[in-house]
Amino acid sequence: MVIMSFLNVYGHGKYNLDISGMGADIKHCQSKGVLVSLAIGGFGGDYSLPTEQSALDLSDYLWNAFLGGAKPGVRRPFGDARLDGVDLFLEHAAPDGEHYDREEEGLALDGDASLPVAGRVALDTGVIERIHVRFYGDPECGAYLERQWDSWWTAAYPGSRIFLGLLPSVEQGEYWIFPKDLYYGVMPVVQQSPNYGGVMQVAHR
């Protein structure tokens, strides 16, 4: 799976971005069985869903601009290429009033979360199909990984597939896991979980 990032402003803006040249690349990946999703949110603070209508508006925009829909006046940045889903990259804690439960209508949703769980409001809706947990970038993420995997994630979200998010190399950032420790220490534990989904690697470029 390839996740492109980020759409970091929610709402009914006028998005004139034309990257339709990427459409052929998206279709090529999909023809090889590789899913392609769009990450929304990110490290900024310009995104929120304070009302039910704002959630429905965002869902409508994502469906018609990036996924399987088509609507007059809604520009499709990737041309006629249709993405496979949406990844919620929620770096900042959301207020309890956020309406992520309404955003799922018609969308295939993934969740990308770190420790501590900034995106818990969205994850607790129960509509997230896949949760990519970032076990890097923070000392709390790497410490007692196996224990956190069980108590914080697989047990808390039994209806979602949980993916172990790791850095591909020590050059990519802090708290990289040495391959031997990963193979012999971490993987035997996480793979026992009934909702274990796989490993996610993040390449920062």
Brief account:
With 205 residues, the chain is of the alpha/beta class. Helix content is 28%, strand content 20%.
Order of helices and strands: EHEHEHEHEHHEHE
Helix content: 25-40%
Tell me the total number of β-strands: 7
Strand order of the largest sheet: 1-2-3-4-5-6-7
Mean pLDDT: 78
Structural class: alpha/beta
Full CATH superfamily name: Glycosidases
Task: Evaluate the radius of gyration.
Answer: 17 Å
Tally the structural domains.
1
Biggest beta-sheet profile? 7 strands, parallel
CATH-defined topology: TIM Barrel
Give the number of helices. Answer: 7
Q: Between the first and last Cα atoms, what is the distance in angstroms?
A: 17 Å
Low-confidence stretches: none
InterPro entries: GH, Glyco_hydro18_cat, Glycosyl_Hydrlase18_Chitinase
GO molecular function, one term: chitinase activity
Protein name: GH18 domain-containing protein
Domain GH18: 1-205
Question: Can you describe this structure?
Answer:
By secondary structure, the protein is α/β, with parallel strands linked by helices. The chain has a single domain (2-201), classed as TIM Barrel. The protein contains 7 helices and 7 strands, in the order βαβαβαβαβααβαβ. The chain has helices at residues 23-31, 52-65, 100-103, 120-123, 139-142, 145-154, 179-190; strands at residues 2-7, 36-42, 85-90, 109-114, 130-134, 161-166, 196-201. Strands 1-2-3-4-5-6-7 form a 7-stranded parallel beta sheet. It is globular, with a radius of gyration of 17 Å. The two termini are 17 Å apart. The model has no long low-confidence stretch (mean pLDDT 78). Residues 1-205 form the GH18 domain.
